[in-house]
Amino acid sequence: MEGSELWTILAWVLFWAVLIGAATLLLLRLLRRASVLVRICLVVVATVAVLVAGMVSAFNAMFISARDLEVMWYILAMASAVAIALSLVLGAGVSRNAARLVEAARRIGRGETLETSGPGGRRAAPAMTSELAALEQELEASSRSLAESREREAAIETARRELVSWISHDLRTPLASMRAMTEALEDGMASDVQGYYRKIIGQTEQMTAMVNDLLELSKIQAGTLHLRAEALDLYDLVSDALSDLAPLAAKRGIRLDGGGDRECMAVADGPSLARAVRNILLNAIIYSRPETDVHVSVGRDNGNAVIAVQDHCGGIPEEDLPHLFETGWQKDPARGTQGSLQGSYSGAGIGLSMVAGIVKAHGGSVTVRNVDGGCRFALKLPAGSLPEPSPAPASPKPGPLETTETNEGPGGTS
Questions:
Q1: One-character DSSP codes across 64-123
Q2: pTM exceeds cut of 0.90
Q3: Coil, helix or strand for 406?
Q4: What's the pLDDT tens digit per position in 314-371?
Q5: How far apart are CA 369 and CA 347, in angstroms?
Q6: Among 221, 329, 225, 227, CA closest to 273
Q7: What string of DSSP letters covers 169-187?
Q8: Which end of the chain has the lower number of beta carbons within 10 A, N or C?
Protein backbone atom coordinates (compact mmCIF):
# COMPACT_ATOMS: atom_id res chain seq x y z
CA MET A 1 0.00 0.00 0.00
CA GLU A 2 1.34 3.34 -1.05
CA GLY A 3 1.58 6.26 1.33
CA SER A 4 -1.06 8.25 -0.55
CA GLU A 5 -3.57 5.39 -0.22
CA LEU A 6 -2.90 5.12 3.52
CA TRP A 7 -3.46 8.83 4.02
CA THR A 8 -6.65 8.62 1.99
CA ILE A 9 -7.98 5.78 4.21
CA LEU A 10 -7.05 7.63 7.41
CA ALA A 11 -8.71 10.79 6.12
CA TRP A 12 -11.96 8.94 5.38
CA VAL A 13 -11.89 7.19 8.79
CA LEU A 14 -11.29 10.52 10.51
CA PHE A 15 -14.13 12.09 8.53
CA TRP A 16 -16.62 9.38 9.49
CA ALA A 17 -15.41 9.36 13.11
CA VAL A 18 -15.91 13.12 13.45
CA LEU A 19 -19.26 13.04 11.69
CA ILE A 20 -20.67 10.09 13.64
CA GLY A 21 -19.16 11.36 16.89
CA ALA A 22 -20.77 14.78 16.46
CA ALA A 23 -24.11 13.19 15.63
CA THR A 24 -23.81 10.93 18.70
CA LEU A 25 -23.03 13.85 21.00
CA LEU A 26 -26.05 15.71 19.63
CA LEU A 27 -28.28 12.68 20.23
CA LEU A 28 -26.87 12.20 23.72
CA ARG A 29 -27.68 15.81 24.48
CA LEU A 30 -31.21 15.43 23.14
CA LEU A 31 -31.63 12.16 25.07
CA ARG A 32 -30.01 13.39 28.32
CA ARG A 33 -33.17 12.48 30.24
CA ALA A 34 -33.44 9.04 28.65
CA SER A 35 -32.61 5.77 30.38
CA VAL A 36 -29.02 4.76 30.99
CA LEU A 37 -29.66 1.69 28.87
CA VAL A 38 -30.57 3.85 25.84
CA ARG A 39 -27.50 6.06 26.23
CA ILE A 40 -25.12 3.11 26.60
CA CYS A 41 -26.60 1.44 23.51
CA LEU A 42 -26.28 4.69 21.57
CA VAL A 43 -22.59 4.96 22.42
CA VAL A 44 -21.96 1.33 21.38
CA VAL A 45 -23.89 1.76 18.13
CA ALA A 46 -21.88 4.90 17.35
CA THR A 47 -18.64 3.03 17.98
CA VAL A 48 -19.71 0.19 15.70
CA ALA A 49 -20.81 2.71 13.06
CA VAL A 50 -17.40 4.39 13.10
CA LEU A 51 -15.77 0.97 12.74
CA VAL A 52 -18.03 -0.04 9.86
CA ALA A 53 -17.59 3.28 8.06
CA GLY A 54 -13.83 3.05 8.43
CA MET A 55 -13.69 -0.53 7.22
CA VAL A 56 -15.89 0.27 4.20
CA SER A 57 -13.66 3.21 3.31
CA ALA A 58 -10.60 0.97 3.59
CA PHE A 59 -12.21 -1.76 1.43
CA ASN A 60 -13.06 0.72 -1.30
CA ALA A 61 -9.54 2.16 -1.29
CA MET A 62 -7.87 -1.27 -1.34
CA PHE A 63 -10.10 -2.70 -4.11
CA ILE A 64 -10.38 -6.12 -2.43
CA SER A 65 -12.35 -8.92 -4.02
CA ALA A 66 -16.09 -9.37 -3.58
CA ARG A 67 -15.54 -12.63 -1.67
CA ASP A 68 -13.20 -10.97 0.78
CA LEU A 69 -15.63 -8.09 1.17
CA GLU A 70 -18.44 -10.51 1.98
CA VAL A 71 -16.34 -12.23 4.65
CA MET A 72 -15.47 -8.88 6.21
CA TRP A 73 -19.15 -7.93 6.32
CA TYR A 74 -19.90 -11.17 8.18
CA ILE A 75 -17.15 -10.41 10.68
CA LEU A 76 -18.39 -6.86 11.21
CA ALA A 77 -21.96 -8.06 11.65
CA MET A 78 -20.98 -10.63 14.26
CA ALA A 79 -18.77 -8.15 16.12
CA SER A 80 -21.51 -5.54 16.03
CA ALA A 81 -24.12 -7.99 17.33
CA VAL A 82 -21.89 -9.07 20.20
CA ALA A 83 -21.04 -5.45 21.08
CA ILE A 84 -24.69 -4.40 21.08
CA ALA A 85 -25.70 -7.46 23.13
CA LEU A 86 -23.03 -6.72 25.71
CA SER A 87 -24.12 -3.08 25.86
CA LEU A 88 -27.72 -4.20 26.42
CA VAL A 89 -26.66 -6.49 29.27
CA LEU A 90 -24.49 -3.79 30.84
CA GLY A 91 -27.11 -1.09 30.39
CA ALA A 92 -29.86 -3.31 31.79
CA GLY A 93 -27.76 -4.01 34.89
CA VAL A 94 -26.97 -0.32 35.43
CA SER A 95 -30.61 0.63 34.83
CA ARG A 96 -31.83 -2.06 37.24
CA ASN A 97 -29.40 -0.91 39.96
CA ALA A 98 -30.36 2.70 39.37
CA ALA A 99 -34.01 1.74 39.76
CA ARG A 100 -33.14 -0.01 43.05
CA LEU A 101 -31.44 3.14 44.28
CA VAL A 102 -34.47 5.21 43.30
CA GLU A 103 -36.71 2.83 45.23
CA ALA A 104 -34.31 3.04 48.19
CA ALA A 105 -34.57 6.83 48.10
CA ARG A 106 -38.36 6.54 48.05
CA ARG A 107 -38.26 4.23 51.07
CA ILE A 108 -36.10 6.75 52.92
CA GLY A 109 -38.65 9.42 52.04
CA ARG A 110 -41.40 7.22 53.50
CA GLY A 111 -39.45 6.93 56.73
CA GLU A 112 -38.24 3.35 56.30
CA THR A 113 -34.80 2.10 57.27
CA LEU A 114 -32.70 0.40 54.60
CA GLU A 115 -31.19 -2.96 55.43
CA THR A 116 -29.32 -4.40 52.45
CA SER A 117 -26.87 -6.59 54.37
CA GLY A 118 -27.59 -10.26 54.87
CA PRO A 119 -26.58 -12.54 57.75
CA GLY A 120 -22.97 -12.24 58.79
CA GLY A 121 -22.67 -8.77 57.30
CA ARG A 122 -22.69 -10.10 53.72
CA ARG A 123 -24.56 -8.04 51.17
CA ALA A 124 -27.80 -9.63 50.07
CA ALA A 125 -28.27 -7.23 47.13
CA PRO A 126 -26.92 -7.88 43.60
CA ALA A 127 -23.43 -6.66 42.82
CA MET A 128 -23.08 -3.08 41.61
CA THR A 129 -20.36 -0.91 40.22
CA SER A 130 -18.12 0.67 42.83
CA GLU A 131 -19.76 4.08 42.37
CA LEU A 132 -23.31 2.75 42.69
CA ALA A 133 -22.31 0.50 45.58
CA ALA A 134 -20.81 3.49 47.40
CA LEU A 135 -24.00 5.45 46.74
CA GLU A 136 -26.07 2.58 48.12
CA GLN A 137 -23.94 2.44 51.26
CA GLU A 138 -24.37 6.18 51.75
CA LEU A 139 -28.13 5.84 51.34
CA GLU A 140 -28.18 3.01 53.86
CA ALA A 141 -26.10 5.02 56.33
CA SER A 142 -28.32 8.05 55.78
CA SER A 143 -31.44 5.98 56.41
CA ARG A 144 -30.00 4.71 59.70
CA SER A 145 -29.04 8.24 60.74
CA LEU A 146 -32.52 9.50 59.85
CA ALA A 147 -34.12 6.64 61.78
CA GLU A 148 -32.02 7.49 64.83
CA SER A 149 -32.90 11.17 64.42
CA ARG A 150 -36.59 10.33 64.19
CA GLU A 151 -36.34 8.22 67.34
CA ARG A 152 -34.57 11.03 69.18
CA GLU A 153 -37.10 13.55 67.91
CA ALA A 154 -39.98 11.33 68.99
CA ALA A 155 -38.42 10.88 72.43
CA ILE A 156 -37.84 14.62 72.76
CA GLU A 157 -41.37 15.40 71.64
CA THR A 158 -42.78 12.87 74.10
CA ALA A 159 -40.68 14.34 76.90
CA ARG A 160 -41.76 17.85 75.90
CA ARG A 161 -45.43 16.91 75.94
CA GLU A 162 -45.06 15.20 79.30
CA LEU A 163 -43.17 18.15 80.72
CA VAL A 164 -45.81 20.62 79.52
CA SER A 165 -48.53 18.40 80.99
CA TRP A 166 -46.73 18.04 84.30
CA ILE A 167 -45.89 21.74 84.53
CA SER A 168 -49.53 22.60 83.80
CA HIS A 169 -50.60 20.25 86.59
CA ASP A 170 -48.02 21.64 89.00
CA LEU A 171 -49.01 25.22 88.24
CA ARG A 172 -52.72 24.50 88.50
CA THR A 173 -52.44 23.25 92.08
CA PRO A 174 -50.95 26.40 93.69
CA LEU A 175 -53.11 28.63 91.49
CA ALA A 176 -56.26 26.87 92.66
CA SER A 177 -55.10 27.16 96.25
CA MET A 178 -54.31 30.86 95.87
CA ARG A 179 -57.69 31.48 94.23
CA ALA A 180 -59.53 29.76 97.06
CA MET A 181 -57.62 31.70 99.71
CA THR A 182 -58.09 35.07 97.98
CA GLU A 183 -61.82 34.40 97.62
CA ALA A 184 -61.99 33.54 101.29
CA LEU A 185 -60.17 36.79 102.13
CA GLU A 186 -62.47 38.76 99.84
CA ASP A 187 -65.60 37.27 101.42
CA GLY A 188 -64.28 37.80 104.95
CA MET A 189 -64.43 34.08 105.65
CA ALA A 190 -60.72 33.70 106.59
CA SER A 191 -60.23 33.27 110.30
CA ASP A 192 -56.42 33.63 110.11
CA VAL A 193 -55.81 36.45 107.65
CA GLN A 194 -52.07 36.66 108.27
CA GLY A 195 -51.75 32.91 107.87
CA TYR A 196 -53.53 33.09 104.53
CA TYR A 197 -51.16 35.82 103.42
CA ARG A 198 -48.18 33.67 104.33
CA LYS A 199 -49.61 30.72 102.42
CA ILE A 200 -50.24 32.85 99.33
CA ILE A 201 -46.66 34.14 99.49
CA GLY A 202 -45.41 30.56 99.80
CA GLN A 203 -47.44 29.45 96.77
CA THR A 204 -46.13 32.45 94.83
CA GLU A 205 -42.55 31.53 95.71
CA GLN A 206 -43.13 27.98 94.56
CA MET A 207 -44.45 29.12 91.17
CA THR A 208 -41.55 31.59 90.89
CA ALA A 209 -39.15 28.75 91.56
CA MET A 210 -40.78 26.68 88.84
CA VAL A 211 -40.58 29.50 86.29
CA ASN A 212 -36.95 30.20 87.20
CA ASP A 213 -36.09 26.53 86.78
CA LEU A 214 -37.75 26.44 83.36
CA LEU A 215 -35.88 29.55 82.24
CA GLU A 216 -32.59 28.12 83.47
CA LEU A 217 -33.25 24.82 81.72
CA SER A 218 -34.07 26.60 78.47
CA LYS A 219 -30.74 28.42 78.66
CA ILE A 220 -28.92 25.15 79.25
CA GLN A 221 -30.61 23.33 76.38
CA ALA A 222 -30.37 26.25 73.92
CA GLY A 223 -26.58 26.04 73.85
CA THR A 224 -26.26 29.75 73.06
CA LEU A 225 -24.89 30.92 76.41
CA HIS A 226 -21.32 30.67 77.59
CA LEU A 227 -19.65 29.74 80.85
CA ARG A 228 -17.24 32.10 82.56
CA ALA A 229 -14.04 30.31 83.51
CA GLU A 230 -12.50 31.16 86.84
CA ALA A 231 -10.35 29.40 89.39
CA LEU A 232 -12.54 28.02 92.17
CA ASP A 233 -11.88 26.28 95.43
CA LEU A 234 -14.50 23.54 95.38
CA TYR A 235 -14.15 23.04 99.12
CA ASP A 236 -15.29 26.63 99.73
CA LEU A 237 -18.11 26.25 97.17
CA VAL A 238 -19.42 23.14 98.91
CA SER A 239 -19.04 24.80 102.32
CA ASP A 240 -21.22 27.70 101.18
CA ALA A 241 -23.89 25.28 99.92
CA LEU A 242 -23.82 23.43 103.26
CA SER A 243 -24.22 26.69 105.17
CA ASP A 244 -27.17 27.82 103.04
CA LEU A 245 -29.05 24.53 103.40
CA ALA A 246 -28.17 23.87 107.04
CA PRO A 247 -31.45 25.37 108.39
CA LEU A 248 -33.54 23.16 106.10
CA ALA A 249 -31.49 20.10 107.07
CA ALA A 250 -31.91 20.90 110.77
CA LYS A 251 -35.67 21.32 110.30
CA ARG A 252 -35.85 17.83 108.81
CA GLY A 253 -33.47 16.29 111.34
CA ILE A 254 -30.69 15.70 108.82
CA ARG A 255 -27.04 16.05 109.80
CA LEU A 256 -24.79 17.58 107.14
CA ASP A 257 -21.21 16.32 107.04
CA GLY A 258 -18.58 17.84 104.76
CA GLY A 259 -15.07 16.65 104.17
CA GLY A 260 -12.35 15.94 101.65
CA ASP A 261 -9.43 17.94 100.36
CA ARG A 262 -9.15 21.31 102.05
CA GLU A 263 -7.88 22.83 98.83
CA CYS A 264 -9.35 21.38 95.65
CA MET A 265 -9.00 23.91 92.85
CA ALA A 266 -10.84 23.70 89.54
CA VAL A 267 -11.54 26.00 86.60
CA ALA A 268 -15.31 26.37 86.37
CA ASP A 269 -18.22 28.80 86.33
CA GLY A 270 -18.97 29.50 89.97
CA PRO A 271 -22.69 30.41 89.96
CA SER A 272 -23.82 27.58 87.68
CA LEU A 273 -21.68 24.96 89.43
CA ALA A 274 -22.94 26.18 92.81
CA ARG A 275 -26.50 25.74 91.55
CA ALA A 276 -25.75 22.16 90.49
CA VAL A 277 -24.20 21.31 93.87
CA ARG A 278 -27.14 22.85 95.73
CA ASN A 279 -29.65 20.88 93.66
CA ILE A 280 -27.89 17.60 94.44
CA LEU A 281 -27.53 18.49 98.11
CA LEU A 282 -31.15 19.63 98.39
CA ASN A 283 -32.37 16.35 96.89
CA ALA A 284 -30.31 14.43 99.42
CA ILE A 285 -31.79 16.45 102.31
CA ILE A 286 -35.38 16.06 101.11
CA TYR A 287 -35.27 12.32 100.55
CA SER A 288 -33.00 11.15 103.36
CA ARG A 289 -34.70 9.57 106.33
CA PRO A 290 -34.92 11.74 109.46
CA GLU A 291 -32.11 11.45 111.99
CA THR A 292 -29.64 10.36 109.31
CA ASP A 293 -26.75 12.21 107.74
CA VAL A 294 -25.80 13.51 104.30
CA HIS A 295 -22.10 13.36 103.55
CA VAL A 296 -20.47 15.68 101.01
CA SER A 297 -16.87 15.19 99.97
CA VAL A 298 -14.47 16.96 97.63
CA GLY A 299 -11.44 15.28 96.13
CA ARG A 300 -9.63 14.21 93.00
CA ASP A 301 -9.81 11.12 90.84
CA ASN A 302 -7.18 10.65 88.10
CA GLY A 303 -6.61 14.39 87.97
CA ASN A 304 -10.32 15.24 87.82
CA ALA A 305 -12.11 17.15 90.56
CA VAL A 306 -14.96 15.16 92.12
CA ILE A 307 -17.80 16.40 94.30
CA ALA A 308 -19.69 13.48 95.86
CA VAL A 309 -22.95 13.59 97.82
CA GLN A 310 -24.02 10.47 99.70
CA ASP A 311 -27.37 10.26 101.47
CA HIS A 312 -29.57 7.77 103.34
CA CYS A 313 -32.64 7.74 101.11
CA GLY A 314 -32.90 3.96 101.15
CA GLY A 315 -31.64 3.53 97.59
CA ILE A 316 -33.09 4.00 94.11
CA PRO A 317 -34.65 1.13 92.14
CA GLU A 318 -32.26 -0.01 89.46
CA GLU A 319 -34.88 0.45 86.75
CA ASP A 320 -35.21 4.13 87.72
CA LEU A 321 -31.51 5.01 87.61
CA PRO A 322 -31.38 5.60 83.80
CA HIS A 323 -34.29 8.08 84.05
CA LEU A 324 -33.04 10.27 86.88
CA PHE A 325 -31.50 12.90 84.59
CA GLU A 326 -34.38 13.01 82.10
CA THR A 327 -36.17 16.33 81.95
CA GLY A 328 -39.52 16.24 83.72
CA TRP A 329 -39.28 12.63 84.89
CA GLN A 330 -40.84 11.84 88.26
CA LYS A 331 -41.70 8.38 89.46
CA ASP A 332 -44.46 9.52 91.78
CA PRO A 333 -47.54 9.82 89.53
CA ALA A 334 -49.25 12.08 92.08
CA ARG A 335 -46.30 14.51 91.92
CA GLY A 336 -47.24 15.74 95.32
CA THR A 337 -45.16 18.21 97.28
CA GLN A 338 -44.49 18.41 100.95
CA GLY A 339 -46.16 21.39 102.53
CA SER A 340 -43.26 22.05 104.89
CA LEU A 341 -40.98 22.69 101.94
CA GLN A 342 -43.20 24.92 99.83
CA GLY A 343 -41.26 27.78 98.28
CA SER A 344 -37.88 26.03 98.53
CA TYR A 345 -38.22 24.03 95.34
CA SER A 346 -40.34 23.98 92.23
CA GLY A 347 -41.38 20.35 91.96
CA ALA A 348 -41.22 20.61 88.17
CA GLY A 349 -39.09 17.52 87.63
CA ILE A 350 -36.14 19.34 86.05
CA GLY A 351 -33.59 19.67 88.86
CA LEU A 352 -31.34 16.75 88.00
CA SER A 353 -31.57 17.43 84.27
CA MET A 354 -30.25 20.92 85.05
CA VAL A 355 -27.41 19.37 87.04
CA ALA A 356 -26.52 17.07 84.15
CA GLY A 357 -26.63 19.98 81.69
CA ILE A 358 -24.43 22.22 83.82
CA VAL A 359 -21.84 19.53 84.45
CA LYS A 360 -21.85 18.52 80.78
CA ALA A 361 -21.28 22.16 79.80
CA HIS A 362 -18.14 22.04 81.93
CA GLY A 363 -16.95 18.99 80.02
CA GLY A 364 -17.62 16.68 82.93
CA SER A 365 -20.09 13.99 83.89
CA VAL A 366 -22.52 13.17 86.69
CA THR A 367 -23.20 9.63 87.87
CA VAL A 368 -25.38 8.00 90.51
CA ARG A 369 -25.22 4.60 92.13
CA ASN A 370 -26.74 2.87 95.11
CA VAL A 371 -24.65 2.46 98.24
CA ASP A 372 -25.38 1.00 101.63
CA GLY A 373 -28.50 2.70 102.93
CA GLY A 374 -28.81 5.29 100.20
CA CYS A 375 -27.26 6.54 96.98
CA ARG A 376 -24.19 8.48 95.91
CA PHE A 377 -24.16 11.26 93.32
CA ALA A 378 -20.75 12.18 91.89
CA LEU A 379 -20.01 15.31 89.87
CA LYS A 380 -16.73 14.88 87.99
CA LEU A 381 -15.10 17.95 86.47
CA PRO A 382 -12.03 17.81 84.22
CA ALA A 383 -8.93 19.71 85.24
CA GLY A 384 -7.91 22.77 83.24
CA SER A 385 -9.95 25.31 81.31
CA LEU A 386 -13.60 25.07 80.32
CA PRO A 387 -14.45 23.47 76.97
CA GLU A 388 -14.89 25.72 73.95
CA PRO A 389 -18.44 26.99 73.42
CA SER A 390 -20.40 24.77 71.03
CA PRO A 391 -23.95 24.63 69.67
CA ALA A 392 -24.56 21.46 71.64
CA PRO A 393 -27.21 21.54 74.38
CA ALA A 394 -26.41 22.19 78.01
CA SER A 395 -24.28 25.35 77.91
CA PRO A 396 -25.56 27.53 80.74
CA LYS A 397 -24.83 31.19 81.28
CA PRO A 398 -23.37 32.25 84.58
CA GLY A 399 -25.89 34.01 86.75
CA PRO A 400 -26.72 34.73 90.37
CA LEU A 401 -27.23 31.72 92.57
CA GLU A 402 -30.93 31.37 93.26
CA THR A 403 -32.30 29.97 96.50
CA THR A 404 -35.23 28.22 94.80
CA GLU A 405 -34.37 24.68 93.87
CA THR A 406 -36.09 21.52 92.70
CA ASN A 407 -37.26 18.44 94.54
CA GLU A 408 -36.23 15.77 92.06
CA GLY A 409 -34.06 13.00 93.40
CA PRO A 410 -33.77 9.67 95.10
CA GLY A 411 -37.27 9.62 96.46
CA GLY A 412 -38.62 8.72 93.03
CA THR A 413 -38.21 12.01 91.15
CA SER A 414 -35.59 13.38 88.87
A1: --HHHHHHHHHHHHHHHHHHHHHHHHHHHHHHHHHHHHHHHHHHHHTT-----B-GGG-B
A2: no
A3: coil
A4: 888 888 887 788 776 665 544 344 444 444 444 445 778 888 888 888 888 999 999 8
A5: 23
A6: 227
A7: HHHHHHHHHHHHHHHHHHH
A8: N
